[in-house]
Task: inverse folding
DNA sequence: AATAGTAGTAAACAATAGGTTAGCGGTAAC
DNA sequence: GTTACCGCTAACCTATTGTTTACTACTATT
């Protein structure tokens, strides 16, 4: 017997538990303040340290450095040092795994735009 | 003249800036450790304080309380006190705006599952 | 009368994230 | 020679976040 005249949930009980666990894992990896922004910048062609720092507004070298190390550990960027270049150049490149985040980023970006409109309209 | 033989970016430069700004806004609102998990639980039919605390593994009353206040301010839950009930009952209900997060949650949940499989397989 | 649940709040504290400043070794341009 | 860019790193500090414990006021059950 199911609750007779109540709001029907947007997610079933099973989906709830599943979603709770899965989003917990996802947020653990990509939920940081900077993580996805770095990923977006790398996917957009910004591969160098200082280029990334310039592109991502407000990030400090210290934080960028430690975030890049985490991302590398998780396989979300690949760090490549080009030794044969005149000044040795370090590049952070997207991987196949990075590209699996495209739908997540798109969904977030779409929602973020809607939310911005909502906020700016009401004030 | 565009870079001749390089990896072509997954996002264009314009999309990059757009995505950076929009996801920044989105993460500001829903990027917290608990935010989306509470939203999922509320959308799944868990409407009461203690029910939420039981459902969301590891959250303390203090944090749940303050997160619910934030969510209410952002219009992502509605706090309803049922005064006519024998013991006064407080409910946290999803709103229309909450439901705009469905795609975001789905995308995150799908990615989180994939990521979990990836991690458990390699160890 | 005692216990337990409901919906929290207060206080005190610990942990983590993030920011600021400074600097290093190298190259290259002025 | 001095300045500046590159890719960082160390030390230090602050702010946010989260934890624990205890407690409130009320109701219902045993």
Result:
């Amino acid at each position: 017997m199911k609750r007779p005249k109540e709001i029907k949930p947007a997610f079933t009980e099973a989906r709830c538990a599943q979603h709770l666990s899965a989003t917990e894992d996802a947020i653990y990896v990509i939920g940081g303040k900077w993580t996805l922004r770095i990923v977006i910048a790398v996917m957009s062609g910004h591969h160098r340290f200082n280029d990334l720092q310039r592109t991502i507004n407000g990030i400090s070298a210290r934080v960028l450095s430690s975030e890049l190390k985490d991302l590398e550990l998780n396989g979300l960027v690949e760090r490549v040092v080009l030794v044969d270049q005149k000044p040795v150049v370090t590049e952070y490149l997207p991987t196949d795994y990075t590209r699996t985040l495209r739908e997540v980023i798109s969904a977030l970006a779409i929602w973020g735009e809607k939310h911005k409109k909502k906020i700016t309209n009401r004030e």
Observations:
- The mean pLDDT of chain B is 89.
